[in-house]
């Protein structure tokens, strides 16, 4: 499938690996794909993100992702569902951090085998790559561009799509931004 990726989409994927390495993450996640998209310049996804104001609100987006990591990767929808069951996630996080230190529920050390140079993709980030192919085919386009990766991130449920939606970056909004004539 990677051979169908445009130069821009390939740059996002390798950029996500670089972000994961910089953070010392054990694997490449959906969040790393988003951060690499936000780093992109002069691509279709970068132009759409800029048009939707996401690049100006990057710090807020990163804060929302960090808050979700602190909650062990739970989305606010999941936190609300647990609250309906009488489970206070904030209280649990506070108790865990009180015992084990701040950020105890975030990803730990790099779990790759010693000598391994390859950083794996999580199941969820692989699903984003697969979804980008479906989005591309659904739009009747031949190559998978970084815009298809962005659309895939907005289409899949979870923390990243929730953070994007909270910042006005939904599937529909991205499609509209992509379909606008370029100035």
UniProtKB/TrEMBL annotation:
Keywords: Repeat. This is Peptidase. Gene3D superfamilies: Clp, N-terminal domain (1.10.1780.10). Residues 101-125 are annotated as: Disordered. The keyword Repeat applies. InterPro entries: Clp_N_dom_sf, Clp_R_N. PROSITE patterns: CLP_R. SUPFAM superfamilies: Double Clp-N motif (SSF81923). The keyword ATP-binding does not apply. Pfam families: Clp_N. It comes from Streptomyces cinereoruber. It comes from the Bacteria. Signal peptide: none annotated. Residues 2-183 form the Clp R domain.
């Amino acid at each position: 499938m990677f051979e169908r990726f445009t130069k821009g989409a390939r740059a996002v994927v390798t950029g996500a690996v670089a972000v994961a390495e910089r953070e010392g993450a054990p694997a490449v996640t959906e969040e790393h794909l988003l951060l690499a998209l936000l780093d992109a310049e002069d691509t279709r996804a970068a132009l759409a993100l800029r048009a939707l104001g996401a690049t100006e609100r990057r710090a807020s987006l990163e804060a929302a992702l960090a808050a979700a990591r602190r909650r062990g990767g739970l989305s606010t929808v999941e936190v609300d569902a647990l609250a309906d069951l009488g489970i206070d996630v904030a209280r649990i996080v506070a108790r865990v951090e009180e015992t084990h230190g701040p950020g105890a529920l975030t990803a730990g050390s790099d779990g790759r085998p010693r000598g391994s140079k390859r950083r794996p993709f999580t199941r969820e980030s692989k699903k984003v790559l697969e979804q980008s192919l479906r989005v591309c085919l659904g739009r009747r386009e031949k190559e998978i561009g970084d815009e298809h990766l962005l659309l895939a991130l907005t289409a899949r449920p979870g923390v990243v799509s929730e953070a994007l939606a909270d910042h006005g970056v939904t599937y529909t909004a991205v499609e509209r931004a992509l379909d606008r004539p370029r100035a």
